[in-house]
Specification:
Number of helices: 3
Shape: globular
Helix content: 25-40%
Number of strands: 7
Structural class: alpha+beta
Strand order of the largest sheet: 1-2-7-5-6
Order of helices and strands: HEEEEHEHEE
Distance between the termini: 17 Å
């Protein structure tokens, strides 16, 4: 068992099965020593954990949990793309999209849900560059979407 697998076990986190693409794209793509994930929606057991707009019918806390789930899904698709979870060495960048009302301005707080779990799992190697963007709509009415760039261990 590698370092990342051990860390997940210590934290009691079970990664979900890597979600399948819902349109014409691949869930993750490897380029050199980097793995780029497509935007991951907050699916858990085939269902979105949060649908709708943050600031309207989705609370900040529920949106943070959705961002957390989307980040776990990103780890899963990256691990599938590189062939082994323990080949993921570090998180380089996170981009988060938040479906929100025009009056909602706490998108960074929502995407903290993704950042917190990535830092919890990868520890110092989980610290990353990040963007948090508000939008008026996301696929399947998801409250959040998260994409990641991971460094692959040689």
């Amino acid at each position: 068992m590698g370092l990342l697998s051990k860390r997940l076990q210590e934290l009691g986190i079970i990664l979900p099965e890597a979600p399948k693409a819902v349109a014409a794209y691949v869930p993750a793509r490897v380029a050199g020593s980097l793995c780029f994930t497509s935007g991951q929606l907050p699916f858990r057991e085939g269902k979105l954990v949060a649908e709708g707009k943050v600031g309207e019918n989705v609370s900040l806390e529920d949106a943070q949990q959705a961002a957390r789930q989307a980040a776990l899904n990103a780890i899963s698709v990256a691990a599938a793309a590189v062939g082994d979870l323990d080949r993921l060495e570090a998180v380089i960048k996170v981009v988060g999209f938040v479906q929100s009302t025009p009056e909602f301005h706490d998108q960074p707080q929502v995407i903290n849900g993704a950042s917190w779990v990535l830092e919890e799992i990868f520890q110092e190697n989980g610290r990353h560059a990040r963007s948090a963007v508000g939008t008026n709509a996301l696929p399947l009415n998801a409250a959040v979407e998260v994409e990641c760039i991971f460094l692959i261990r040689e």
